[in-house]
Amino acid sequence: MSNDAYGSEDWNGWRPAPIVSRLRWRVVATLGAFAAWICLMLLYLAFWARGFSLFQSLVVVVVSLLALLAVVAGTWISFGMRLADGGRD
Fold first, then answer.
1. Would you say 83 and 19 are in contact if contact means Cβ atoms under 8 Å apart?
2. Cβ contact 75:44 at 8 Å
3. Which of 37, 40, 56, 80 stands 20 to 30 A from 30 (CA)?
4. Taking CA 77 as the corner, what is the angle to CA 61 and CA 25, rounded to the nearest 5 degrees?
5. At what angle do helices 18-43 and 54-84 cross, to 10 degrees?
6. Contacts of 16 (CB under 8 A, 6+ apart)
7. Cβ(32)–Cβ(71) under 8 Å?
8. Which DSSP string corresponds to 32-78?
């Protein structure tokens, strides 16, 4: 049994299913990606968008959001395909 609070075992020796660890990094990556996107967009709008028109700035925000959604969707699609395949690695 692990002594640290974040160990891989619970008090009774229970270990999470392998699917939990695959879900965990995808959830963390998704939340981190959206947090990073929001920070970058705030920095962009505050400092770098001054030379662009409102329409150009809107296009930059929308295109970056679409790119972010494509990356996040790729991580979740790969998870769904593995899950549909029976969870094999």
1. yes
2. no
3. 56
4. 80
5. 180
6. 8
7. no
8. HHHHHHHHHHHHIIIIIGGGS-HHHHHHHHHHHHHHHHHHHHHHHHH
